[in-house]
Amino acid sequence: MSHKDITILGESILPGEGKTINMEIARLHTMTKLKIPIIVERAKLDGPVVLFSAGLHGDEINGVEIVRQLIVRKANKPKRGTIICIPVINIFGFVNKTREFPDGRDLNRVFPGSKKGSLASRFAWYILKEIIPHVDYCIDFHAGGASRFNAPQIRIVPNNSELKELSDIFNAPFTLYSKNIPGSFRNACGKLGVKMLLFEGGKSLDINADVTNEGVHGAKRFLQHFDMLNPQKRVKEATSAPIYIQTSTWVRARYSGLLQNPVPAGSYVNKGDVIALITDPFGKLEKKVKAPNSGYIINSNDSPIVYQGDAIFHISQKVG
């Protein structure tokens, strides 16, 4: 097998070479430059190209930490093939600690983008034009938004045996079947033939050590499967298979008030179990929140204050 050419933003990366390419598309309103480092490591031996990306939403920093640790531990230096790391895609949101771009758009809803469109749309266009054509596999790291904590999970589309096999290899505690959302990075990659696993874990503006470890170990298992992991880098073997969730339901607050939520994400609950209390500040209201069915809590709202209608739990309904 011959080595394929990898050229990003006009810079070529040769076999056996490592290079950091800075993508600069726009500046802050202060004219300050903002560069997005694209860290590329190629082995001398040919093999797949794997992309580890994070920070598509600027406030989801747990994914940034996972990719950072892969770099620091030098797990991104492959035995064969190529590993591309983009720890922070939405550098504008990361700077401002916000989910969106400065133009108010969600980058994960504007793919495939446009070269002459909005700021977020232009970033989406350059990512698909300059990086994705080189990529065979991608793991995109996310976290829950709006104080909602996701149990570590992989999300894949239903009825795709290859993605299911890759999810088994990554071996997060949960795998959730979910359809691609139009305009999402995952949807765009799928249309271009890139096999993507979407990792969700933790919550916005937070770094959780357990979630980070799940992400790092899963990524290393993924690389080991393709004989890309450096033999000197140990990988934690999986001790159990992922729990596959086919359907799930959201539990919403029936009252506004203070949320007391003692049941952590990842827990199994039985139908009728009291999983939270909603109280008022004045000692007059105390309402129990009960599990509508037996299942795993894959997302929990960690906000101390909720309003009527807010999503407070995501519970599995059908597993297997």
Notes on the protein architecture:
The protein is α+β, with helices and mostly antiparallel strands and 320 residues long. The strands form 3 sheets. It has a 5-stranded mixed barrel. It is globular. The model has no long low-confidence stretch (mean pLDDT 95). The longest helix has 17 residues, at 209-225. Helix 4 (161-170) links the parallel strand 8 and strand 9. Helix 1 (61-72) packs across helix 6 (209-225). The protein contains 6 helices and 18 strands. It has helices at residues 61-72, 91-96, 119-131, 161-170, 185-191, 209-225, and strands at residues 7-8, 11-12, 18-23, 36-42, 49-54, 82-86, 137-144, 148-156, 174-177, 195-203, 243-252, 257-260, 268-269, 274-279, 286-290, 295-301, 305-306, 311-319.
| Strand/helix succession | EEEEEHEHHEEHEHEHEEEEEEEE
Give helix % range: 10-25%
Low-confidence stretches: none
Terminal Cα span: 39 Å
CA radius of gyration: 20 Å
Largest sheet properties:
5 strands, mixed, barrel
Number of E-state strands: 18
Shape: globular
Structural class: alpha+beta
What is the count of DSSP helices, taking H or I runs of 4+ residues? 6
Strand content: 25-35%
What strand order characterises the main sheet?
A: 8-9-11-18-16
Mean pLDDT, to the nearest integer, reads 95
